[in-house]
Amino acid sequence: MEQIKSGDTVYFVKYALSGGVTKEVARENVSENGLVCLVGYPYTLCRANRDVFTDQQDAIEAAEIMRDKKIKSLEKQIAKLKKMEFAAHKKGE
Predict the structure, then answer these.
(1) 53 domain-assigned
(2) pLDDT for 28 beyond 90
(3) Which of 11, 12, 36, 85 could form a disulfide with 59 if both were Cys (CB 3.0 to 4.6 A apart)?
(4) How far apart are CA 45 and CA 52, in angstroms?
(5) Cα–Cα distance between 16 and 74 in angstroms, integer?
(6) CB 52 within 8 Å of CB 12
């Protein structure tokens, strides 16, 4: 697993579905193995190769996977809503 050090340029995908993939600078390591780091967002903890990537293409691929998972989840919710049936009844019945 890739170690991210302070000052490394990283591509941040943790909030890609709301803000896109952003290019940031890692501020500091908070674990010995570099798996968790703080990036340019105030006090944002992230994990290398899940939330941040040093390679832009890897970050884009991760964001696309996140998008596909979200679309599948929303499609399930839509299907459930379409199956719902409503009936009027008196209060207390």
Answers:
(1) yes
(2) no
(3) 11
(4) 10
(5) 17
(6) yes
